[in-house]
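Protein modeling request. Please complete all fields; requests missing the sequence field cannot be processed.
Requester role: graduate student
Desired output: 3D structure, C-alpha cell encoding
Chains: 1
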Amino acid sequence: MIESSANEFIGKDKSTKLTASVNFVDLAGSERAAQALSVGQRLKEGCHINRSLLTLSTVIRKLSKGKHGHVNYRDSKLTRILQPCLGGNARTAIICTLSPAREHIEQSKNTLLFASCAKEVTTNAQVNVVMSDKALVKHLQKELARLENELRTPAPPDYSALLRKKDQHIEKVWFTFSP
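Delivered output (179 residues):
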C-alpha cells in the first residue's frame, strides 16, 4: 500500500488536505497442493491463500449482483484490507491474466468468471474533503444561523392539504351514517 498526502491552500486561511492511497495486490491464483507438491508450512500457506481467494470471489459476487445486503468483508484479511477499494469510495482497477497452456485451462476459466463478476461491481468515487477546524466551525455556524432563521419565520400552513384531510373525514363520516 502506498499512501500520499498533499496540502492544498485556497486563499489565506482556507485549507483542505488531500490524501490518496494505492493498493497493489498480487493474488497469484489458487494454490493447488497436488500441482505445487507443497507440504508443511507451504501447504498451510496455500490453504490460507485459497480461503482468502474464495472469500474475495464471494464478496465480488455479492457486490456484482447489485443487492444492498450484507457483504461480510471480515471473513479474511485480504477482503478486510481491500474493503475501501471494493465497496467503498474508490476507483478500482483489476488486472486478470490468463495462461494459454492447456494444463491451466480450468484456472483460466475461473479467472474469466471472476473477471466478469468484478466488471459488474460499481463504486461511487467522490472526493472527501477534510476541512480545517476553522472552516468546519464557520460551516456549522452558517448552518445554525440558517436553522434559527427557519424557526423564527415558520412556513405558512398548507391549506389545500388541510382541506383534503377534512374532505376525507367528511366522506368517511357520510359513508358510515348513510343508509
